[in-house]
Every structure is written in structure tokens, then in C-alpha cells.
Structure to design on (914 residues):
């Protein structure tokens, strides 16, 4: 009712940039995850921050939910309109507004995808580093505090967003942060917005850090007898201060899936995939030192990829891990878990998870951003088999319990969305109430992505 | 009145760990800055988080201000009890609780100083990187979002605090963050607390990141014909991706002050002081590449310091810049400014500031963390000369205006305290109101460090 009145007003404001077509509603009611379809009442396609502010004001007047939408690659249903309302799709706000080469930053609209930005940057010698695998929008990545394979060297979205323009729940437009690289001027509102999943405001512009394209890059894959040896090699490498740009773990099941999917010939053992960025000489030295450490932990089958095409093949294989795993069990759907623990607990967390999966009737290959202590188990279940689905959910649940017991977090990079809300109380204790206090203060009507992040009111 | 009642109750709770001696009150009413004496009504010396919570609860009941205190090294009067109340001195909460070598983190109480922590870490091969010059407490450094010479490589306090235990305005104790290196689980409360200057809560425990002591270190100083050449050399070095651990600018007046104070023989021209951390070979290569770039911009008089004692002499000189400048004008006091701008605007900001100082009757030597775009002008005035004091304040004011005009911030690392509050509206616009909303939500009685950070109520 209240939503319908808001939608009528929005139609007047936006004309044919307000969609109520069934296909559009269904598209925005679904995500790359296992949640039931929850379509919004309408989809708005704003073109400016001022239009976003008008949309929010209209919705605020009617108490109608407002849920931001990037390209729908989130894995925890963050952008689902759980109680209907308006999905604000940033597809038409997809411009790179400015690249400041000397300052190594770019001002972008939230609908720009990371690949689009990197295409625009090609001639500059700079690149945007955060790479969650999917070609997500920068707005969506900021809102989920995304990271990925390069975070160990270049940081997560928390580290790579300098400033934002945000539309608040009452339609005010604010600017947080500046293009200065650091500041001690007041509460870090940019940091508060990053990872807030659209519950505190809608980002309409961002300034992101860029990095210099390395002069030289070297990648390698190598094999270990067991998980623990691989993780200990990682710990030793970090402690030696060898600057890894990526360091990824894949378990024997993923190696097998790669072989089947990409025609590789990896032994079906635990592997590390590493990459070094730097000068020709620096990279060569880093690689040599890594090799010595890995040798100490029994690594074998080193394959170095110094040519761009070889490297591309290696990381395409890694990026396709999700699809390779899905293909290893035709017809299956996946729950992708996402725990992150202190690195000293990583071997234990992975080993316990593997044992848990081994005792189950479903497969669950494991890949991990081991430099950060973050890993994913891809739990493959048949959708028409409720027992399997329950089994997958139970393993995922035990993984979170394990992460929290080991001093870690329920999600390293995928976020809370609709999937992890039940763990917030356990992970944060009273601090979760503080999040509720902040949400109440900034969105007293609870119209911004309601049902997410904080305790339901 | 209300403060007196709170202090009486606190005396019962703390016994002789509540001080009302005049000398103690005066000590806590003063800071390393130019603000008038504002003593608290009492100084509390808690030993546990639970005691801090009790203190806050008693003060909340009476509406009595609570102001946290480290060792009083802040430059903007953050820890001054502007309206009286209780100064909570963390001197007795000064333990390093745990060092997790494998995870490269340490759990500390807020009263530990950065030097104390590094002494404890000596045998581990690890170090704590943030170095604001003064031997501040880690709690104080977190609360002001401190940084210093190594931030360009290892980040500021924002980047180096993983987790916190915090006492809120109602006496609840919460934990923010975990020891996992990254998380997407909810609002970044740790990030919100860092830089909040005691206005949202009192930190009672922190987990901080540590870094591996580099295998090799190389430092150098070199001279340039003009400021712009020095800054352009910095920009080129950053863009080449050469990983500098420190890169500091000093102007001709500082070089002269060094010569007088430390007996150095630097030409009285602009200088860069740089340091590289890494492997023997990597450091040698970085240094060589830097030298080539610097040569392109006309650098002369390179002096390399590869031996520990030479390096120590170099950085002691830099750390003593403040005292060297003070000594250059016997009897003078200083206003230390702290603006930070996008690096492309750095030459312009420094050049305009130098011209402004040159036209004034007081000296104002300039030092800067140029890798971050952050610099300080040390404005030396005679305290008994109101005209000079006014002149210093006017130059400092114009520096902030300049920073904001150039897209920067009023403070790169010193914080707001009592000195920069007047610039918050201009720097943040409506976003400053949002800070007020957050403060109101988390401290509705306004007892935590009142009069700071947000719009006075």
C-alpha cells in the first residue's frame, strides 16, 4: 500500500526509468545465491545523485523500502528487497568521472564495474586492485567491503576508498573524506559506509585509490603433501616480509576440478598459487626466496609463469574455480562459505573443515586467500534433495562456529546480507546492539535495505 | 556540583588511585600546545576495563565529563577537560598482554607507549610501525588516528588497529573486530573508534598489527634547488611503485636549524630524507632507482646511510626537527600546523605557505611527510607578544583554508581536539551533522570528552 503510493510518485519523477515489468522485478529479486525470489515493487534507474535523493525523499515520505542494486553478483542476498519496495539500480550511473594520474586516484560513479575501470585506466600505467572475481560494480564492492586475491598486497575496499558522496535516509547528500591520502579530521564516515550494505545510505560517487602497474610480474603454482605444509610456507613467507601480490590455496578437490574443467594436469594435492609484483630484479629475488621457503616445506612441481599469457591462464583457472567446482557435479547448486581466521589458526580451520566435508555425503572443495586467513568451501548440493541442502547448510554453520571459536569472523569478504544475520549476535555480542543504535540514528524509519545487518525491529 | 558528587563516589571506588592534588590536576589540564590551562576536577587511575566501566557509570549517573588521558603528547588539546570532570589516566593499564608472532599482532592495554611495545618486541623480529615522533601511548595514538614518518609504507593507526575493547558512555564494555586480518561482518566499529578522540568510548584494550623487521634498510638525504623539484621527485618515485618506507621533506629553514642544533652540514636548501626497507638486493635496487629519479630532478649531495648508527643519526635529526626549530628561536613557543593535500597539490600548498611565512615577521620552518601529502609548518612566536601570536594563528588559519581549497584536509595526523573544531563545518559540510548524530546516539548525555569533535550542544 505505502509502497504502491511511493511507486506511483516515482513513476512521475522518472518516467520510463521506473520499471515495473515482471522480468525486471524478477531479475532484481534474485541473486547469485540460494535465497528465494523476493522481487521489489519497482526498479528505479537514476542518473544523478540529485535523482537518487529525490527517490529516497519520496520513499521516506511513504515509508517505502529502498534497496541499492549493482549488477547482482553478491553471494549473500544483500540486494534482495526482502519486504518489497524500490530497487535502485545504478546501471545508468556508470561513468568514470575523473582519473587523477599524479594522485593515483579515480572519481567514479557507483555503477562502474571494476573491469570497466581497468579498461579506462589501460593507458595510464595505473590499475584498480580490488578483484573479487566477479565483475562487480564498485558501489556494490564498497558496500560489501569486498576484497579477493590481491588484498594481501593492496588491501580490501576498506583500504581503497578515499572518499564518497552518499545520499542519506532523509535525502540529504553528504560528502565523506577528501582526496588527501590520510586525515585525522573527525569520525571516519567513509569507513563506516564501506561495508554498510546500503543500510546507512546510498553511495552516488566514490574516489578510489589506484596503484602503479608493476614493471614485472611473476606467478607460480606449486604442490604440497599436505595442507599444513602449504599454510606454514605462507606464514614463513609473510614473516620474511616477502611482498606477495597474491597467494591462493586450492585443495586436492579443486585441483581435480581444474584438471577436468581447464585441462590442466595438476597433481591432486594441495597447491599454492602465488604472484609477485615489482621490478624485474625484485620479482626474481622474491620468487627465488619464496621458492626456498616452499622447498623447506616440501613443495614440488614448481611451474613459473613469467609470460603474460601463462599468467593469464593461471589466474583464469583460479578465477574459474567456482565454475570448475560447479561443473564437477553437474546440476548442483552451491553454498559458498567465507570464513576468515588468524593465520596461525588457518591450517586447523581448513583441516577441520575438510574432515567435516569428508564425513558428509556432498562434495565441498576448498579455495582460500591464505595470505589473509580467508577461505571458501564450495558446498555442492542437489537443489531437489532437501537432505543434501540441509547437510550443506549444516557444514556452513559449523564453519562459522569454527571461525568464531578460533578468533575469526563469519565473513571475510562476502558480507552479511540475508545469509549471515543469524551470526551477528554471536560474533559481535553487545557491539551488534551498537550497530543497531547507529542504524536507528541514521535511518530512524528503517527504509534503507530493511531486514539486513542489524537486529530486526 | 554534579562533578563534585561524582568525584566523591569515585574516591570511594578507587581510593588513592583517585587524585585531587593540585599538581596532578594541573598536569592533566595542560598539553603540548598553546591552549590555556583547564584542569579536571580529579584524575582517575584505573587498572582494569571493569574499573573504567564503573568510573563511566558513576560519571553517567551524575552527568560528569569523562576525558581519557595517555601521556599528554597531543598537539591540539584533545585530552583537556574543557568543562572539568574526570581525567581517566591509563598509566596503570600499560601492559603488553600478548604477542602473537605467527599472526604478527599484539594485544595491548591503551597505556602502552609505542617505544615500550617495540622494546618488548625486540627479540621477535617484529616491530610496531606507527611513529608520530613523540613516545605517545597506543591508546592516544588510536584516538587521534596518528601516523608519522612510516605511514607511506605501513599505514596510519587506521590501518594498524585490528580490534578493540571499548567502554561506552553507559558503561557497557564491547569488543570490536577480531584478530582476523579482514572481515565483512557489519559496520566497522573499530574504524569508527579510531580517530574519535574519546568522544564515543574509552578504549581499554587494542589488538595492533605488527610488521617484520626488514632484512636490510637504507637511508639517504639529498638536496634540491627548489621545493617543486623535490616534490616532483617524490611523485615520480611513487608512480614507479618504488616502495619507500619513509620520505620526508625539510625546507631550507629546517636544514639550517639542523645544522645549528645537531651540528650537521647540510646546504640550506630543500631536502628529501628517504628510507627503503627490504632484502639486501631489493633495498640496493630501490635506492639506485630512487637516485636516478632524484638525479633527473636535479638532486645533489646524496649521502647514504646504510649503517645502523648513521641511519639513527639521520632519523634522530628528523625526529628532533621540532626541538631544533624551537632552539632556532630561543624562548619561542610553536603552533604546529598539520595540513594534508592530494600529492599533485603539495608543491603549490608548500610554496604558498612559504611565501606567506616569508611575508610575516615570524619564522615558520616546514617539514613534511611528503609521500602522503602531509606537512607541518612550525610557527615560532614569542608568547608575550600578542601580535606575533595573532600572526601565527593567522598563518595557520590560511594554511587550513589552502588545504581545503586544494581538496585536502585540515589535519593529516594531529586531529581536531580543541584546535581545529572551527574548521569541521567547512571541511565536512552536512557530514559534520552526521557526526553529531552518531555522537548523540552513542553518548546522549554528552559526558565523553564534551566540547570536542562535534557541534557544541
Amino acid at each position: 500500500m505505502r509502497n504502491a503510493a511511493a511507486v506511483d510518485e516515482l513513476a512521475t519523477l522518472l518516467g520510463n526509468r521506473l520499471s515495473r515489468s515482471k522480468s525486471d522485478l524478477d531479475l532484481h529479486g534474485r541473486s547469485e545465491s540460494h535465497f528465494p525470489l523476493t522481487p521489489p515493487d519497482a526498479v528505479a534507474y537514476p542518473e544523478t545523485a540529485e535523482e537518487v535523493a529525490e527517490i529516497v525523499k519520496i520513499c521516506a515520505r511513504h515509508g517505502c523500502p529502498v534497496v541499492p542494486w549493482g549488477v547482482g553478483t553478491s553471494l549473500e542476498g544483500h540486494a534482495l528487497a526482502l519486504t518489497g519496495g524500490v530497487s535502485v539500480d545504478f546501471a545508468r550511473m556508470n561513468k568514470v568521472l575523473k582519473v587523477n594520474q599524479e594522485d593515483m586516484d579515480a572519481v567514479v560513479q557507483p555503477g562502474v564495474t571494476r573491469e570497466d575501470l581497468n579498461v579506462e585506466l589501460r593507458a595510464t600505467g595505473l590499475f584498480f586492485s580490488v578483484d573479487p572475481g566477479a565483475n562487480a560494480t564498485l558501489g556494490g564492492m564498497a558496500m560489501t567491503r569486498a576484497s579477493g586475491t590481491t588484498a594481501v598486497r593492496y588491501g580490501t575496499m576498506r583500504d581503497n576508498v578515499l572518499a564518497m558522496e552518499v545520499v542519506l535516509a532523509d535525502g540529504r547528500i553528504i560528502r565523506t573524506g577528501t582526496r588527501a591520502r590520510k586525515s585525522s579530521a573527525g569520525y571516519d564516515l567513509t569507513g563506516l559506509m564501506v561495508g554498510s550494505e546500503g543500510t546507512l545510505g546510498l553511495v552516488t560517487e566514490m574516489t578510489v585509490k589506484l596503484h602503479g602497474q608493476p614493471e614485472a610480474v611473476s606467478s607460480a603454482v606449486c604442490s604440497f603433501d599436505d595442507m599444513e605444509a602449504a599454510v606454514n610456507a605462507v606464514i614463513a613467507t609473510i614473516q620474511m616480509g616477502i611482498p606477495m601480490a597474491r597467494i591462493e590455496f586450492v585443495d586436492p578437490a579443486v585441483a581435480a576440478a581444474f584438471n577436468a574443467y581447464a585441462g590442466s594436469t595438476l597433481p591432486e594435492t594441495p597447491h599454492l598459487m602465488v604472484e609477485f609484483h615489482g621490478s624485474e630484479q625484485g620479482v626474481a629475488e622474491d620468487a627465488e626466496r619464496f621458492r626456498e621457503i616452499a622447498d623447506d616445506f616440501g613443495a614440488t612441481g614448481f611451474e613459473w609463469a613469467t609470460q603474460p599469457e601463462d599468467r593469464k591462464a593461471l589466474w583464469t583457472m583460479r578465477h574459474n574455480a567456482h565454475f570448475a567446482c560447479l561443473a564437477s557435479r553437474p546440476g548442483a547448486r552451491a553454498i559458498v562459505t567465507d570464513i576468515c581466521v588468524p593465520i596461525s589458526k588457518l591450517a586447523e580451520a581448513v583441516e577441520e573443515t575438510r574432515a567435516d566435508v569428508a564425513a558428509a555425503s556432498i562434495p565441498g572443495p576448498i579455495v582460500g586467500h591464505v595470505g589473509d586467513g580467508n577461505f571458501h568451501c564450495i558446498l555442492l548440493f542437489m537443489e531437489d534433495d532437501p537432505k543434501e541442502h540441509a547437510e550443506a547448510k549444516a557444514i556452513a554453520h559449523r564453519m562459522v562456529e569454527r571461525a568464531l571459536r578460533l578468533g575469526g569472523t563469519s565473513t571475510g569478504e562476502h558480507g552479511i546480507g540475508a545469509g549471515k544475520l543469524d551470526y551477528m549476535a554471536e560474533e559481535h555480542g553487545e557491539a551488534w546492539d551498537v550497530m543497531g543504535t547507529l542504524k536507528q540514528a541514521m535511518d530512524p524509519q528503517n527504509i534503507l535495505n530493511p531486514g539486513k545487518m542489524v537486529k530486526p525491529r
